[in-house]
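I have been asked to look over a protein record a colleague put together. Alongside the sequence sits a line of tokens, each denoting a local backbone shape. Please read both lines and tell me whether the tokens look consistent with the sequence. Take the sequence as given and treat only the tokens as open to question. I have pasted the whole thing underneath without changing anything:
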Amino acid sequence: MKDIFEQLHTKEILDRIDLLGSDTKAQWGKMNPAQMLAHCSSFQDIAMGNQLPPRSLLGMVVGKLAAPIFYNDKPLPQNMSTISTLIINNQREFETEKEKLKQKLITFQTNGPHKCTAHPHPFFGKLTSEQWGKGIYKHLDHHLKQFNV
């Protein structure tokens, strides 16, 4: 499984983000490219410990059992539900969101696993830095595939 803490895998993701255009059409879902970038950036804030959303009740009940979906080798399902605080409905400026996400990814990768949050994922609960690294890659890969890049 690819891991965002690996420099080569981060470069791959950054190169794919650069292929995304403001008018790229989604293969599924409701977000446009700028909203998707903002969504991924907000998710990155959780992994970096900059945003600390509370655990959901459902997550407390089944999150630990479902957690492997976040970091295993299987692709995430299309139209999978998301954390409510990460739903982006308003319009965003594409280039701003693109640069913001890229800078967060570079910082996260550069800081390494020891700077990853110890705060539990709002649904899946406690994750190791290795699980976060794989999950971040997988989440970004999922959304870039959503836009066919």
